[in-house]
């Protein structure tokens, strides 16, 4: 199994900390893709009365809606990045009122965010696109510098309270012989939609999107031609919860990033120290910020904790990228986690 | 929100410990439903080479396939019950070889279980049926003492390695006015399929089972008539992984309980002690058995840990029912967990 710590082929222009600062100051207004060595995320901000149902929607639909973090009521900081502000650190926001889009491409949501809002961060496929590229499997949309094609399918979400809807998928095309490797690589990105949910023209038919592709249509993103020797491959997509939220016609003000176009760049290199009991409370890492209660347990979930240690102890330590660009050995601790991003060795 | 600790209206005949002993000795050969005050589970036993993919299948499809526990390679004990043996403690087993059913209703799988097998326990709806009954919402199948009707839907599972397939649902009918309450009650049983995934005739159409119901058919279980003033309501069903396993035509010997008919009764009253760091390693509870690494992290997952405490520490303490039938106060610790079964107050 390839290590999940990516050896970046080119150095990013900024640390994620610098990038957030620049976005906040309005110096970057476009897509953050490729600008920093970080996980990125979809943002949804909801009135607090919908928070429980929305969290359940994510937990019941982890493939299209992988929940990374949610804030306390009124709190606009993220524990997955130092000094971050969810109201200002994304280049473009959308604002909805009573289910209708009332403001598009806002540069911040300082005026809209109230003490009653809860922010949710949902995994995005940025991470596995980089890995695909480095395996010689760069998707056509990425090569052509276009947005990935996205389709609303016929697959119903598992309902949760006020929320229901259908899966949205992103589509990238591959030669049939490459699909096993594509499945293997992306399957490791548990919190960024994981392996594909369908592939091939038969798969396209099954999830109800074949005709749209044949007609050259997309529901979101850009249409990208499929070469004759390739077939479509479909992943769960982080636009799913945004569509579910819009279709649920929630009362009040809802906010999001601009779908299919701009993604949050909150996530710094994150290291998970998994230790059997007793655990050291304060490993002396300069700049380490202990993850607090609000980082979703699933973030440290699935793979490693229970299969390797006798009790369920874990400390999540978040280390700002800026602190360890010179100490490359620091972040080679938990190869099973896809949140272990770092500078490799 | 109603407490999840059930106040049983009638005393069960046996403790779950006694029940397992009786099943092991061959004194009980039928359904275990109602015989003990325990969670029950679906069992699937696979050659170890399929274990990783199957675990991912469960984690990617938590509503139909809620993973409760899986064993180490070759280990036939469950940490969710004392002195249990997965090879003998279910009244009836099925055995498959290379994808074909080769033996049905076996009383044990002592000869078939090898050092290379891994056992998986999947949540079952027994728990919420009791809660529905106690809320005056007993399903018709339960009233008539019939097996719940089950249908294979058109909803594709999120694929995982060698596994793919479609959701199986269980169906119970309700008056439309009762559906919100039914959703609320069952929604708390996160590891037993949770709230319904579809309801009403429109829902039946959407998931592709309307015509089968109208024709009086079932895929598993017994057909149960729907009164004129009621509509069908559908839950994810623990037969889903069993069908996926069969359809994947695995090489080697696969074992399960008899689907739709007999369920495991391994689960004793389980208490999760969630404590902020530092945690006490050995609370002095007579009979307490510490949960070891193999209890799935998701079992203690979703609801409470991260929302209530600053770090991710949890000790899972399993307390045999026999030890606290006289100390009813012991098990009122974590109302958010649906694994907190106990004798109430």
Helix content of chain A: 10-25%
Domain tally of chain A: 3
How many E-type strands of chain A? 13
What's the tally of helices of chain A? 10
Rounded Rg of chain A: 19 Å
Distance between the termini of chain A: 17 Å
**What share of residues are in beta strands of chain A?**
15-25%
The biggest beta sheet of chain A is recorded as: 6 strands, antiparallel
CATH superfamily of the largest domain in chain A: PSTPO5379-like
Oligomer: homodimer
Largest sheet, spatial ordering of strands of chain A: 2-5-1-10-3-4
Provide the succession of SSEs of chain A. Answer: HEHEEEEHHEEHEHHEHEEEHEH
- The appropriate CATH architecture of the largest domain in chain A is 3-Layer(aba) Sandwich
GO molecular function (chains A, B): D-glutamate cyclase activity
Family (chains A, B): Belongs to the D-glutamate cyclase family.
Protein name (chains A, B): DUF1445 domain-containing protein
InterPro entries (chains A, B): D-Glu_cyclase (IPR009906), Putative_hydro-lyase (IPR038021)
């Amino acid at each position: 199994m390839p290590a999940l710590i990516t050896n970046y082929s080119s150095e990013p222009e900024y640390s994620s900390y610098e990038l957030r600062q620049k976005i906040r100051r309005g110096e970057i207004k476009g897509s953050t893709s490729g600008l920093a060595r970080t996980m990125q995320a979809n943002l949804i901000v909801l009135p607090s009365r919908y928070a429980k149902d929305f969290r359940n929607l994510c937990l019941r639909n982890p493939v299209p809606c992988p929940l990374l973090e949610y804030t306390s009521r009124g709190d606009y900081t993220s524990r997955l990045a130092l000094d971050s502000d969810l109201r200002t650190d994304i280049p473009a926001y959308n604002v909805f009122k009573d289910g209708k889009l009332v403001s598009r491409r806002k540069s911040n949501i300082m005026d809209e965010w109230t003490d009653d809002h809860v922010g949710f961060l949902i995994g995005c496929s940025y991470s596995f696109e980089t890995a695909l590229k480095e395996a010689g499997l760069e998707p056509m949309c990425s090569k052509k510098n276009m947005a990935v094609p996205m389709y609303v399918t016929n697959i119903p979400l598992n309902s949760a309270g006020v929320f229901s809807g259908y899966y949205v998928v992103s589509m990238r095309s591959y030669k049939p012989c490459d699909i096993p490797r594509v499945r293997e690589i992306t399957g490791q990105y548990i919190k960024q939609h994981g392996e594909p949910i369908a592939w091939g023209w038969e798969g396209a038919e099954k999830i109800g999107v074949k005709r749209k592709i044949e007609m050259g249509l997309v529901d979101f993103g850009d249409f990208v031609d499929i070469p004759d020797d390739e077939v479509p491959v479909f992943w769960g997509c982080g636009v799913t919860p945004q569509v579910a939220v819009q279709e649920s016609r929630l009362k009040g003000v809802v906010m999001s990033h601009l779908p299919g176009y701009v993604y949050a760049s909150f996530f710094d290199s994150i290291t998970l120290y998994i230790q059997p009991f007793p655990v050291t409370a304060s490993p002396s890492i300069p700049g380490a910020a202990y993850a607090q209660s609000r980082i979703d347990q699933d973030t440290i979930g699935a793979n490693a904790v229970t299969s390797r240690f006798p009790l369920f102890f874990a400390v999540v330590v978040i280390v700002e990228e800026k602190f360890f660009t010179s100490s490359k050995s620091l972040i080679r601790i938990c190869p099973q986690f896809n949140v272990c991003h770092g500078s490799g060795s």
